[in-house]
Design brief:
Tetracycline Repressor, domain 2; DNA-binding transcription factor activity; mainly alpha; 301 residues; HTH-type_TetR-like_transc_reg; flat
Length: 301
């Protein structure tokens, strides 16, 4: 699949596509149904997201959010009972941007590719979402829409429901793992007080020292390509290549599955029955018989 598909991936601003109504289940059943005048839950969540984007999830507290809204901390508790609820609301708000605008591609690989790309884009824009995932699965309205769309992407596959869930988990595991790796790569040089280039140069020097010992012949065989071990290259390209391999592997495994039985078994041909033993002829005759026109009648199951 060509890489120019990125031109079609447009992750909207955080203010668009969010579903505001609470749904049934856990936190969502505890949310107040009435609209209170003045301060709104939406404003609280938006302020918390802005704070988390700027300073990280650890910076989000009821007191800090209240200060950003120029209100008293106690006023927030009229809308949100605890900080964990706020984190879940923030996460569900961010998930809204993962949802692909209609129409979703009818090709399951293309559809999952697009969903994974949007997941990565949203997570990199809101790095705190990886830390705020907490309990799983998510049951907020946008999380449910995301799950519904993911299952819709696989609706055309003639496989059992368990395999569909396993496919979604495999793609999600790869996507989340890659995102976490990217975020770690961004943070590590800053923690050491170095630039990414300086960190890369330091690791390369150490690798050459190890290779010179002669204890790592396979690594030494890399020769001029030794930097590939530590220089992971352009993140988008790496993500695309890995995602293609994951989807191609899934497609190959599905092609090896035995075709599902769509028709009832029918009685063997008469000449084949004649070659069987008496016992086999008797058991076969019991399974089905020709009708008056000579056509074989399907086995009744």
């Amino acid at each position: 699949m060509p890489c120019d598909r990125h031109a079609a991936i447009r992750v909207p601003d955080a203010s668009s596509q969010a579903v505001r109504r609470p749904s049934d289940g856990l936190l969502w059943t505890r949310l107040a149904k009435e609209k209170r005048p003045g301060l709104t839950r939406e404003a609280i969540v938006d302020a918390a997201i802005t704070l988390a984007d700027a300073e990280g999830l650890d910076a989000v507290s009821i007191r800090r959010v209240a200060a950003a809204l120029n209100t008293r901390p106690m006023s927030l508790y009229s809308h949100i009972q605890r900080k964990d609820d706020l984190f879940e609301l923030m996460t569900d708000e961010a998930i809204a941007d993962i949802i692909v605008p209609d129409p979703l591609s009818a090709d399951w690989r293309e559809a999952l590719w697009t969903i994974a790309q949007r997941t990565r884009a949203v997570a990199l824009r809101h790095p705190w979402i990886m830390k705020a995932r907490g309990s799983w699965p998510r049951l907020g309205p946008n999380a449910m829409r995301h799950m519904e769309q993911s299952l819709t992407a696989l609706a055309g596959l003639d496989i059992d429901r368990r395999r569909k869930i396993c496919i979604l988990r495999a793609v999600d595991t790869y996507t989340v793992g890659h995102i976490v790796t990217e975020l770690m790569e961004q943070v590590m040089p800053r923690r050491e007080g170095r630039s990414a280039a300086e960190q890369q140069q330091l690791m390369q020097g150490y690798l050459r020292t190890l290779v010179d010992t002669g204890d790592f012949p396979r690594i030494a065989d890399l020769g001029p390509d030794l930097p590939l071990l530590t220089d992971h290259g352009e993140a988008q390209q790496r993500f695309d290549e890995g995602l293609e391999w994951v989807l191609a592997g899934i497609a190959a495994s599905l092609a090896e599955l035995p075709p599902p039985t769509r028709h009832p078994l029918r009685r063997p041909r008469a000449d084949a029955v004649e070659q069987t033993s008496t016992v086999e002829q008797t058991s076969t005759a019991d399974l089905g018989r020709p009708d008056e026109t000579g056509a074989e009648e399907p086995i009744r199951q």
